[in-house]
Amino acid sequence: xxxxxxxxxxxxxxxxxxxxxxxxxxxxxxxxxxxxxxxxxxxxxxxxxxxxxxxxxxxxxxxxxxxxxxxxxxxxxxxxxxxxxxxxxxxxxxxxxxxxxxxxxxxxxxxxxxxxxxxxxxxxxxxxxxxxxxxxxxxxxxxxxxxxxxxxxxxxxxxxxxxxxxxxxxxxxxxxxxxxxxxxxxxxxxxxxxxxxxxxxxxxxxxxxxxxxxxxxxxxxxxxxxxxxxxxxxxxxxxxxxxxxxxxxxxxxxxxxxxxxxxxxxxxxxxxxxxxxxxxxxxxxxxxxxxxxxxxxxxxxxxxxxxxxxxxxxxxxxxxxxxxxxxxxxxxxxxxxxxxxxxxxxxxxxxxxxxxxxxxxxxxxxxxxxxxxxxxxxxxxxxxxxxxxxxxxxxxxxxxxxxxxxxxxxxxxxxxxxxxxxxxxxxxxxxxxxxxxxxxxxxxxxxxxxxxxxxxxxxxxxxxxxxxxxxxxxxxxxxxxxxxxxxxxxxxxxxxxxxxxxxxxxxxxxxxxxxxxxxxxxxxxxxxxxxxxxxxxxxxxxxxxxxxxxxxxxxxxxxxxxxxxxxxxxxxxxxxxxxxxxxxxxxxxxxxxxxxxxxxxxxxxxxxxxxxxxxxxxxxxxxxxxxxxxxxxxxxxxxxxxxxxxxxxxxxxxxxxxxxxxxxxxxxxxxxxxxxxxxxxxxxxxxxxxxxxxxxxxxxxxxxxxxxxxx
Length: 711
Known about the structure:
alpha+beta; Glutaredoxin; 4 domains; 4-stranded mixed β-sheet; 50% helix
């Protein structure tokens, strides 16, 4: 996927010596109810393995010291609560006493929740990529007692797993020097990415124009113009792609970009990846048409998608997007809301009936609920033989309701009303089934993503309930996960926050609190955003690369990584770069604005080579180069005018304001006595203030059109 990966794989291939992959069908043995030490873990995923006969450890000094003392390799098994194949491997192998005996006698076994410890997952996933070019979970890595990996794989059947365990243990003791050599080579390959960052650091001055030539064209060529998203399958939502295309349309007027964004968003919301009964998006589709989902539902996916649909609604005013926003946030409130304002992590893919069975329908049960309505069966593509598995149907649509009604010569209003009744009846019937389990840990960055989604939904729709939810979520994060010095904890469970935050926790929290300030002009949130950012600068910044490490310095990890690629969640460095630029603008701090620009300079050449994998950086590049605007709203009706203004999509504007005197540099001396004024500024130079939001928007549009012509 990335040039660094292929280079490292070439370097390592001479050292891969005992790596046969075994995939045979087998059965699993009896389990035990005796609890191992994972019963004390904070992670629900780790607790699920507390009844395994495997002598599991959590990652930490206890396990590493025991491995060194007994001269045993580490077996590091990484997964997460909503991972289907993680559960399969547990049932087949980790619950089997014979398999557990081989594991316990030959290895120090460590279980890791990748969502709690993405820093650990990142290292061993890199090892897997270097060895095989593959990714996936469960991730099973073998390492020296000091944590250096020498082999990694994903899912194995019981028989292949036992064979591999014996082969690895034998090689460790008989051919240790070769194993040690491979481990060091892997660590060098993992660390090489950061070395390349240092070597390719750009020396351009901040004042030099940022070159965005070719970024859009390269990305667009790899997209599926008919079905949206990127070409091929499996198909991931990639909200950053829709956001990039919407931004392109705003900046350049490129209708092609808007068409791709709207095609992507509509096809997803009509497909099986979207829960047609209960709302909310699954992790990804296994096909290229968005029809068959991989069924787990993640908080971060849904939060990122709500923001994308909110921005699409601001541009198009298409009520279909507004409906998706409402249904998705309803799903989150009903299924993932925790007491106190926070939100749980995910909904499992599996239930007692099997993977995805909670969401599927047999034709007979569907007909019973709908009264045998052929129109409804046609709309949802329900077939007697099934459209997913034998006699099992995943509900999806081919057209939005109004288009379907027109094609079938139905009254659109009557069909839409009937559809709502049918969905409600299906939802009530489905609630009688055993629901998939919820991963009840609360992750800071994912909650921050949802906080931003609520503010974006409020801005787009004007629904006050969304702003109320956003403020409650912000209050939860402030109270439970953010310390007075700006430091952040990663997770919250059972009234405790334990693990230190990672860069994504800092970046997304700061971004979300800035967005909340832009919405309600409460400088309290802005102050916290600055404190969080300053702590990140102190603890994570690498002055050799002008970028931020993903984790604070730790002695028990073999490599300290820098995250620059977009993954399921966009790059935290890219998010933080925009945070720094925004804070620098608001506080008139050139150190921050320059650092935000220089962060992009550090990755610019890599972004140009493969922009598809750097969508958040590409959006930042256009934000920095297109000419961004400061919008200041001052006066008694500042909040009302702001609400009117932000119903329009404004991706290159930084919005500030107050109903009273304020000390922020851009707001000083701008408070009128008896009216509310809106200032549209560029580089702190403002045009004539306007009293009406529509007139301020005309100023923004005229400047935007001028910038388009100039570019």
